[in-house]
Amino acid sequence: MNTRSIIFFISVVMAVAFAWFFILPSLQSIDAAQKAVEIIKGDIEVLMAANNELQEASSFLGSISEEERELMELAVPGSSDRVNAAVLIESIAEDNGLSVDDIVVGIGQDSSSKGEMIGLVPVSMNATGSYFSIKAFIIRLEKSLRIFDVNAIKITPVEESDNLLTLEIAGSVYYVDAGTSNK
User: What is the pTM of this model?
Assistant: First the structure.
């Protein structure tokens, strides 16, 4: 091999080595950066869509009248409001001719640890009355603004009585759990 060939060969090897050590890593970095930019663009699109949804919800909530807010507060109060739940259920029972023997309102279950905004409070009641009183109570409870889900109901005849029945009902009332509610 002559000197020219050797110089040419060494130049080619140096050019390849330069490309290998300096240009190729830069190209890989550029490719990785482009992929990261695409991921960030996708994240930005998701965040913008979420922002639009939040703005729509905010404008909807801003358009709710004070009367509608009060009705929402009655249906799902801002705290567990256990006393009000007991008074409401007892008054509905007594207004419909039932004699309330016992009412128990449990402690609100913490839903904020699960990331949920709605908490629930277990409620149970034992009352005595006629078939028609029990029926009227259940209908009125169903139409009440305060949301009440019935989990169990048991109706049994009262011994030594022709027309009295005992009602055992268990369920839950709901509230908005802002993490600071009175449980």
Answer: 0.58
